[in-house]
Write a structure and sequence with these properties.
A six-stranded mixed beta sheet has the order 5-4-3-6-7-10, with helices on both faces. A two-stranded antiparallel sheet has the order 1-2. By secondary structure, it is of the alpha/beta class.
Length: about 300
């Protein structure tokens, strides 16, 4: 369950308001303290189960890089960022917070320092529960903002390396909340990203933009591909796409035996990024990808639709 404490981030007791809505509750900046007319709600859900011990420091550095990039963006005043971590259970590290101003260097450093040790690895993997918490909170807070005439859209990124073995809530609850975002007008649009670390057997194909990757039968993947090739590397597939099929996209091939592939397909994530490793360069690229995705989604606010896809 969320802990609703932000002391390590320098928050005073009155900055964030605790909301008891939904199955878990969440904390967020008080609506009366918001100064902009529109906001992108950003939630990062990070795995800190025992299996992540080999790249804990890299992931904590990635969180800092993401937040720093957000502060330096032209849309920094229009972002509200929340961090949720999970192991045996899940925990809100901080609620939806406004970024410090560009000149507030001390406050910003205090925020970044708060991520040191936030991903201390231990326990099992309650990924579904944490994701359900994250999207339910975005929907509930987004609906409150819309009712107060704010413009709102959202972005959710889940980063994990393991199969779920601890959650109480099923994938169907996650999928229902994804659908509720726009069907119930909780926000203008929602971008959802699942990042799976350690997917060494992932395959990729190049397909037209209008093809729904969730509907591709893995037995038909090769014939569906523009060049009839199953790529073992995303980078090589992306290089070929840019050179020969600039109007197409690269998508992972569904593996029905892989639980994270199942999570992606059953929940209907908008984007799925399988990573072969968690090396420093890969995690640095991940931080850049997430930062660019946040910026793109925030820039799309007011257009009526989600942002353009960012390549990894």
């Amino acid at each position: 369950m969320p802990k609703f404490t932000d002391d390590q981030f320098g928050d005073d007791s009155g900055q964030l308001q605790v909301h008891k809505q939904g199955h878990f509750g969440f904390s967020a900046t008080r609506i009366e303290d918001l100064g902009a007319a529109e906001y992108t709600l950003v939630t990062i859900v990070a795995d800190r189960s025992g299996s992540t011990s080999s790249f804990q420091k890299e992931m904590e550095s990635a969180l800092k890089s993401i937040v720093e990039a957000c502060q330096h963006s032209d849309r920094s005043d229009n972002l509200l960022i929340r961090l949720v971590c999970f192991d045996d259970t899940h925990e809100e590290i901080h609620g939806f917070r406004q970024l410090p101003g560009k000149q507030q260097k001390v406050e910003m450093q205090q925020w970044l320092d708060g991520y040191d040790g936030a991903l201390k690895p231990a326990g099992l993997t309650a990924c579904y529960d944490a994701t359900f918490d994250a999207i339910e909170a975005e929907n509930n807070y987004g609906q409150q903002l819309l009712e107060e005439d704010f413009g709102v859209n959202g972005l959710l990124v889940v980063i994990t390396d393991g199969w779920d073995n601890r959650s109480t809530y099923p994938i169907s609850m996650v999928r229902s909340e994804f659908a509720r975002s726009t069907k119930m007008e909780c926000m203008e649009s929602l971008v959802t990203i699942l990042v799976a670390v350690g997917q060494t057997d992932a395959k990729f194909i190049i397909v037209p933009q209008d093809i729904d990757r969730h509907e591709i039968d893995p037995k038909d993947a090769k014939t569906t591909a523009a060049n009839a090739v199953l790529h073992k590397s995303y980078e090589k597939a992306e290089q070929e796409r840019k050179a020969k099929y600039p109007d197409y996209k690269v998508v992972p091939v569904y593996d029905p035996s892989d639980q994270l592939d199942q999570f992606d397909r059953q929940a209907r994530f908008g984007h799925y990024v399988p990573l072969a490793d968690a090396g420093k360069s890969t995690i640095a690229r991940l931080a850049q990808f997430v930062s660019q995705s946040i910026s793109s989604q925030s820039q799309a606010l007011g257009t009526g639709g989600p942002s353009q896809s960012i390549t990894f």
